[in-house]
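Researcher: Batch entry, complex prediction.
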Amino acid sequence: MKQEAVILNPRDNVATALCNLKAGNILQVRVGERKLEIKLRAQVPFGHKLSLAQMAPGSPIIKYGEVIGTSTETIQLGDYVHVHNVASARGRGDLAKVMK
Amino acid sequence: MSFQGYRRQDGSVGIRNYVGIISTVSCANDVTWWISQEVKGSVPFVHGQGCAQTRPDLDQVTRTLISLGWNPNLAGVLIVSLGCESVLADQIAAGIAKSGKPVEMVVIQKVGGAKAAVTQGSSLAQAMVAKASKLRREEFADSELVLGVKCGASDTTSGLAANPAAGATCDLLIDNGGTCIFGETTEFIGAEHILVRRAATHQVAEKIMNVVARTEKRAIAMGFDMRGGQPTTGNIAGGLTTIEEKSLGAIVKGGSRPIQEVYEYGERPQGKGLFIVDTPGREPEFLTALAAAGAQVIVFTTGLGAPQGFPFIPVIKVTANPATYERLPDHLDMLVSLSEHTDFAETGHVLYQEIIEVASGKQTKAEILNYGNFPNIFTIGPVI
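Model: Structure tokens for the complex:
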């Protein structure tokens, strides 16, 4: 069977889609020793990310076993994870402006 | 392993044998371009800098132009100067001549304008091409190779497979005694802690932290979230959400060996091994930095399909996005498989073979297309 998503590190809380995935699709993924069944809550295009866990706002998003950003709202298992619900912590001139 | 290259007087080895027509200032670009079009075997280097800039930038442009002239893929250099620019054409010519290769100069304001400069410059370039063409390729060990690595128009496949393949190739070349150069400091942001662990000395670790902080500070100084600029709009469309994610995928293209030194833009690394050149990631400026650093060949990974080559450096385009590979056959040289089971050591070997072939004369897609004639030089300060 064609692999539908890839998880790069057992610590990751997002997976990367290896094909265009539709809302309602059920994915079987393996995170380290754990097996997860995920029902997608939204469409996830090829190369984009989906959530492997429920996350409160302000949670670290982990890919490659490293923090890639912070959730800006509640993210459910199976949600599409991208710029609409993740902020970067770096290069934030906008925040520096507020601090002034 | 060995390849067929051209021996240069300074001990370096070229894999192409061009006469470089190098413009000192944007005002000399047209003449530079016309000469390069008239003389087969010559290549242009045009850019947007060289005048009405502050001292640090003028020094950076001068240093970069001299280093470009030293690139082993050039057999000789013709400098094209307007005459009144801020950078000193004589200083640039003298700096290149120290490499031992022939250097000539034409000054547009002195010889009577563009037409006269093209006529005189073309004659000089023709003579240099005639002489260079007598040189024959010889066999050299792969330890003479200087490989530049770059990623551009990235999507998530770049970090998942194309960059790890490039990284495996870098490791192979370093282990064989060769040299690899990477950079794109903006794309260290969020991954610098990993690079620092690989620094050969404490000083190198400190330099890595410093160049990343300097780059991030420049972006922050503009007062905006840099997202959209980095990651670019295209990166975001390709699934990259933050600069941290882009960086973590980007740094793997430099492999896993110790980082020997960090150089400023336009500097030429000394010795062998893995080096960083501090430069932003944008193609016109970054490919120039690799050429100035002495790279004879560049591996360029892409997700969405970046077309750029460089006037005198073969650029090998590698993607792990099968749709991009199918859609852009004119641009892409190699497809890397994308799955959990991809063996990057094996992919690295395949890419290494390709580098050896290209080094010995095989043309890349970007060379065949003649794409990439409009590079630039990175500058920091304002145009004044």
